[in-house]
Design goal:
101 residues, alpha/beta, Endonuclease, Chain A, 4-stranded mixed β-sheet, 3 helices, 20% strand, globular
Length: 101
């Protein structure tokens, strides 16, 4: 297991982990503005990796941007779920992948 701490470790180790995953990727998304990571997740699905994303029900960027992200990921074959709206605010990001490091 390897712990990647953001933002200090940068995007490279996260992209490497997505590219090396062979079975599953689970990711929790609060705000998602990295096109490189989105494309890497799409490529993972294309090579047969099961990708599951939990997306915040809302954020400061608004419902519309989250809905567009959700639709893009669904179109790429990612299984997408939304968090419940019982927590008024949280800020979490989490990535778990198999065979990645």
């Amino acid at each position: 297991m390897k712990l990647i701490i953001q933002p200090d470790d940068g995007l490279a180790p996260l992209l490497k982990a997505v590219r090396k995953a062979r079975k599953t990727i689970d990711i929790v998304i609060f705000r998602f503005d990295r096109v490189e990571l989105e494309k890497a997740l799409e490529a993972a699905v294309a090579r047969g990796v099961v990708v599951r994303a939990l997306i915040a029900h809302t954020n400061r960027g608004g419902e519309k941007s989250l809905r567009r992200l959700e639709l893009r990921l669904l179109n790429a074959g990612v299984t997408v779920s939304r968090t419940a709206d019982d927590l008024p605010r949280y800020h979490g990001k989490l990535f778990v992948g198999d065979d990645v490091l």
